[in-house]
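Final paragraph of the annual report: two paired records, presented back to back.
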Amino acid sequence: MSYAQLLGCGLTSHAIEHRAATGRLHRVHRGVYAVGHASLPPLGPEVAALLALGPAAVLSHRSAAVVWELLPPRTGPVEVTVVDARRASRRGIVVHSTAALPPRDRTRRKDLPLTSAVRTLIDIAHSPELEPALSHALLKRLVRPDELLERGGPAIRALLEGGPTPSRSELERRLLALVGAAGLPRPETNVWIGRWEVDALWRTQRLVAEVDGYAFHASRAQFERDRARDADLQAAGYRVIRLTWRQVTGERERIAARLAAALA
């Protein structure tokens, strides 16, 4: 609770100080207290940060992405944005200042003020977590690709446009080159298992690798089809590894190690 809220509940300044001294209130930030115990519930740090910065503050950047469920929670400072306010960051809070935050860029979710999904992605455009966050935002239909292409900047546009769409033969060639360079057994390619044709199959190890031409599927129908394919293959006793075009071309050592572990 904020100092003002505690006063609104009928406590005097002296009563607040006494409760803080005796452990009934626990200071989280200047003028913000946890009641009864020091541990905060889920989203408690976010609420405390908003109380500390006042009614003009909104959750933003990675903190907003977590509330939108685009990224997993993790420990660290809460990120908030304020308009035209030169407020310094403090322990547990990173303050971002902006000249303007129009109505389309702010909303509420889980009863917390935060940046819109589009603005959140724009704010984290230079983060290595942009790709998974963007993928989740598209799959959850929280954003429209056309709006992101218009507003998103080079990093977001590059992910959306994806460059040239690789052909099936190019996907196969890149995967086989990765496997060969790592000294792994060569898989069968373009093999039918039941009603599904898979990209690569290690039959003895009952391992399937699927390489997607894009980093994510903006189509809900394609997403559902991929899930159905994986479920059928797993029911038939196959393990399925999904790889993206970027992983195969840009993260070769990590993917080789992942395949080696699966084949061991």
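The closing record of the year follows.
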Amino acid sequence: MSNFVFSRRALQTIILRMSKHLQSDQLGSIVARLNRRGEGRIPAMWELVVLDSLGRMARLKHEVELPDGRRPDFELIIENLDGSEFLLIGDITTISDAALIENNPEWALSLELSRLARKYGLNPNHFGYRLSSHLVRKRSKLFLPPRGKLLELLGKELPPWMRKLRHNLLQHDIFDYVGTTAKFSISYDVTQRYQSGSSSSYDTVTSPTKNTLSTSLKSKVAQLRSAPPEATRLIIVCDGSSSIFRNQTLRSMGTFNCTEIATDFLRQNSSIDAVILVTVDGERTIEFLGDISGFELRLSLVFAPPENRSARLSPHVLKNLEDVCEKLVTLMPTPVRSPRKAAHLAKNFDFGPDIIGALKMNNDRVAFSVRALQHLLAGQITVEEFNAAHGWDEKWNPFEYKLREGRMISKAEIVSGGDRDDDWIALDFGRPDPAVTQFNADAASKAKV
């Protein structure tokens, strides 16, 4: 499975195709960012995919210098049926909640809680936490200090309590902490099967102008300011793991979604004609055992209210922009991961995981991950780990079962896994082989028939 929103195989195909549109140094820069583990990989991915889709629908130029020296991401020239040309100049940007998550280190508390539990011989799954919040500059923030101070606090306060839990064999208990920089509650329950946690929402947007989307859009105004007067100016905003894209419905009063934020920005900045918002639906899909179904792109084209639009937005231009948005959806590859999961994997891992554990099986064939098999043969995982991933044990293993029947592997076939970024190795089993079975007179009589 990929560590990007799209499969790595699809991205490599796009890289090869984009060599026709981009100069070698331009393409090399994008590829270098894709290969460098960190937060810059997802923005590079979106830039590559969007540029490729634009280049497949019309004449594309990348980073063409404007009179003020700025270099927008794309210049697109679309030839209309009447022979006229539609000039579109724009920039691609990606927004995420990275800074928001860093300022609300719930994840750090969860990881440290598990680490300390294991250190003191307790099951991390028996713990849960509840986090309080408070208002900081009119925005909800978890009542926690920065990550470093939080880890220092937990390391000092939790060990005495955990030693008490272990030595007294307590079944249930609660640890409450109230201080000048933190307020939280941690519970312990031996009947609890999984670690639990709850916190007040800190990612809702309560201002149309003070949020990551609005800030990103404003930063692009100067980038497009000196575009030719006849050019339509477009900003494409992609989801790099941002709650702004997900909080579209079931919102409380006084909060704003991404469409409303973009509309408000365009109302105040007539130098920009439109915004396209790009995200992936299917956040609740279970990303397990190579399952890549359930994800689909969602693109929204946003304009300012009619009274706030520039004179450039004629009905003809509006139709052209709508066509561009519709074509982008069809030309972009199929997503295989949510932006949230991809952002984590791309930041922390060079490559995506294989589909070890995925299995296709009938009476005559067993198919499983090629990459997992190669990891096994290379000694990177053990036989025990390989079997455990597939749920095989000493009571049942398909290969051991076939061997007892005397049915040996008769054929091996590699079946493409496509966007799974892994393939299947399918092993067929033949009839009982006399090389490993008792001689059988009945087999001879059946052969005559």
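Residues 284-289 have pLDDT under 50 and may be disordered. This concludes the annual technical report; the extension proposal builds directly on these records.
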